[in-house]
Design brief:
The protein is α/β, with parallel strands linked by helices and 459 residues long. It contains 15 helices and 13 strands. It has helices at residues 19-22, 35-40, 58-72, 83-86, 96-111, 127-130, 138-155, 168-178, 189-211, 233-256, 263-267, 281-285, 342-355, 384-402, 445-458, and strands at 12-16, 76-80, 115-121, 161-166, 216-221, 226-228, 291-295, 300-304, 322-325, 362-366, 407-413, 432-434, 441-443. Strands 1-2-3-4-5-7-10-11 form an eight-stranded parallel barrel, surrounded by four helices. α13 runs parallel beside α14 and α14 runs parallel beside α15. The chain starts with 11 loop residues before the first strand and ends with a helix. Keywords: Carbohydrate metabolism, Cellulose degradation, Glycosidase, Hydrolase, Polysaccharide degradation.
């Protein structure tokens, strides 16, 4: 155990993936198109024009991938369910073949002694709903609840842990403001409406899961530790705006039943006079949770900056008078993200201090690094930088637990190299290498290190 950070008995070790990133089979067995099918087929939207049409072919190779999970020794596997496989048009008839695929996957996991943890939305919105307004409109939240109920009815007897949304920040702001994720929009009020309706969809999905008797219900947020570029009042104020947009817009409604007090300072005219909130929404959004999922990769350093667009009518929701600057003096991953594990501890401790007993038990639902892997002559992958990243961040996680944060589990991102959204197949996060030409899977050194860590805790 001396070479590994130690965790208490019962701590859940897992691995995570997402449907569009690994499944492929984009047009099989009644699956409808998603916004990521549309976006990835748009010229110039993704690196090299890459799409998820085939990805890791997990749809056909899932038994092989479950064997990898079994041999890894994980307690739990976090996967996501593709809404367009279940309800191809977003609403209306349920596709039995789509439900059957996930039923087979769940049964395979259970037979291997692995607990399924299902994410209901990991960004693959049915295109038919986007055509009717997407997350900008409340109807999408209502259809999400119906889809949730259908999935829970079919799988709820075997899936103990449910996650409503994965990283709604990315869905709302990368998708509807920055335009770097599907559906590729660049909007102001539309992005803020999307953020709110994602929260409404979460609340409605929690109700549907509770009605179906779900044992554990939570949501996954990608919270960021935002650091000031300097101690100047302007940079410190910029951090407040960054915290509002990245963190408080989610955590305040979910954990405290309130909207951020700093939202007008952050969004100004875009939030003033909004018309997408309704009486009772906060009560719905703040339904009690069994756990909070947190995805963490790196800190963000921000400096004060003027509006990029002076006209509020043309301003996007992420134009909040700050800019990200490079954190020097540390290693950066292949994504260009700084490796600063102490900020992981800091984020979790600050969250506990901020919300106190309102913070439910935490699961780290994603953590990992993209690295410039090379394949040795014998076919092995010696990813020492990824091993160091995982060791350092698990050590930082243990430090947060020692400081009083109730963390129950950790899921490495990701089991497999996969389609990394707008980066296509250029970035590799997996602890298992995928040769996209042959679909051959090769466990990397990080896979073996993680397996040894898990075995040491069971020994």
């Amino acid at each position: 155990m001396s070479d590994f950070p130690s965790f208490p008995p019962g701590f859940v070790f897992g691995a995570a993936t997402a449907s569009y990133q690994i499944e492929g089979a984009a047009h099989e067995d009644g699956r409808g198109p998603s916004i990521w099918d549309t976006y990835s087929h748009t010229p110039g939207a993704t690196a090299n024009g890459d799409t998820g049409d085939v990805a890791c072919d997990h749809y056909h190779r899932y038994p092989q991938d479950v064997v990898l999970l079994r041999d890894l020794g994980v307690d739990s596997y976090r996967f996501s369910i593709a809404w367009p496989r279940i309800v191809p048009d977003g609403g209306g008839p349920v596709n039995a073949k789509g439900l059957d695929f996930y039923s087979r996957l769940v049964d395979e996991l259970l037979a291997a002694g692995i607990e399924p943890a299902a994410t209901l939305y990991h960004w693959d919105l049915p295109q038919a709903l986007e055509d009717r307004g997407g997350w900008r409109v409340r109807e999408t939240a209502e259809r999400f609840a119906e889809y949730t109920a259908a999935v829970a009815e079919h799988l709820g007897d075997r899936v103990p842990r449910w996650i409503t949304l994965n990283e709604p920040w990315c869905s709302a702001f990368l998708g509807y403001s920055v335009g770097r994720h599907a559906p590729g929009a660049r909007e102001g009020r539309g992005a803020l409406a999307a953020a709110h309706h994602l929260l409404v969809g979460h609340g409605l999905a929690v109700e549907a899961l509770r009605a179906a008797g779900a044992r554990e219900v939570g949501i996954t947020l990608n919270l960021d530790r935002n650091l000031p570029a300097s101690g100047s009042p302007a940079d410190l104020a910029a951090v407040v705006r960054a915290d509002t947009q990245h963190n408080l817009v989610w955590t305040d409604p979910i954990l405290a039943g309130r909207y951020p007090a700093t939202e007008e300072e952050t969004w100004g005219e875009l939030i003033t006079g909004e018309d997408f909130r309704r009486d009772g929404d906060l009560e719905l959004i703040s339904r009690p949770l069994d756990f909070l999922g947190i995805n963490y990769y790196r800190p963000i350093v921000v400096a004060d900056a003027p509006y990029r667009e002076s006209d509020p009518a043309r301003r996007v929701a992420t134009d909040n008078r700050y800019e990200e600057v490079v954190l020097s003096g540390v290693r950066h991953t292949a994504m260009g993200w700084p490796v600063a594990p102490a900020t992981f501890t800091d984020l979790l401790v600050r969250l506990k201090e901020q919300y106190g007993d309102a913070l439910p038990p935490v699961h780290i639902t994603e953590n990992g690094s993209a690295e410039d892997d090379t394949v040795a002559a014998d076919g092995t992958v010696h990813d020492a930088d990824r091993v160091a990243y995982l060791r350092e961040h698990l050590t930082a996680l243990r430090a947060a637990m020692d400081a009083g944060v109730d963390v129950r589990g950790y899921y490495v991102w990701s089991l497999l190299d996969n389609f990394e959204w707008a980066f296509g197949y250029d970035k590799r996060f997996g602890i298992v290498r995928v040769d996209y030409d042959t679909q051959e899977r090769t466990p990397k050194d990080s896979y073996h290190w993680y397996r040894e860590l898990i075995a040491a805790h069971r020994g």
